[in-house]
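WARN  no MSA supplied for this record, continuing single-sequence
INFO  ligand: adenosine-5'-triphosphate
INFO  echoing inputs
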Amino acid sequence: MSESVINVSDLTRRFGATTALDSVSLSMPRGAVYGLVGANGAGKTTLIKHVLGLLRAESGSVRVFGHDPVADPVAVLSRIGYLSEENDLPGWMRVDELIRYSRAFYHAWDDAYAEELRQTFALDPTAKIKNLSKGQKARTGLLIALAFRPELLVLDEPSSGLDPIVRRDILGAVIRTIADEGRTVLFSSHLLEEVEQVADHVTMISHGKIVLSAPLDEIKESHRVNGRVLSLDEIFVAHVGTAEAPAPDA
Ligand code: ATP
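INFO  complex generated
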């Protein structure tokens, strides 16, 4: 558990007059589930894009598996499964074509596991991606992100478009299994209840600053009112304010 998978140090990112990340420092040891929570525009996607090397650190540093993801993308990206918020899949492909196409990128691709996931996610292999529902697209993206058994799974708002049952039964189970196997999950979400159910460690971000980052158990233990442990929702409001609280549902 001691070796860090992600190390972010003093990372600041500006877009014109907007400070999207303000001196962010984070260290994520292997084998845990990290929930990154914050309101719209808090900086979650910007942080994730730095981890993936889609944005270059202008100030501060980012290391993933000990490597700079911009300077050494092969060493980093071959070990990360990623599901983006936009979930940009090629609409003209069929599900089975996308699976065949994606497996070419990863030598560790596991055909049997991909097929198991396809069945669990109830995906028709002959369906065209452009004709899938939002939830089916999200499941397809998740299959592609999982089938090579990445050491680090990064999910940006994985629940948008997924119905509550899929969220709980599929996403929750997938995330827990990965951590139980000693791999690491980083997922961003504005659904605090969901984060509370699956995360081991919670990082709250507001206006580009980390306002709280600790193991969930510790956070809960240190937030009691008259003996009652507060919900993550209440803790978020206490640190960030009601106006900033994420919407209760997708
Ligand atoms: P959401 O939950 O809405 O996806 P987020 O927490 O992921 O929000 P970011 O997408 O990281 O937030 O955005 C952080 C801030 O940076 C916002 O104010 C956003 O408008 C701004 N921002 C992000 N990317 C760009 C860009 N390419 N150009 C200009 N501003 C940007």
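The CA atoms of residues 72 and 221 lie 40 Å apart.
INFO  checksum written, moving to next record
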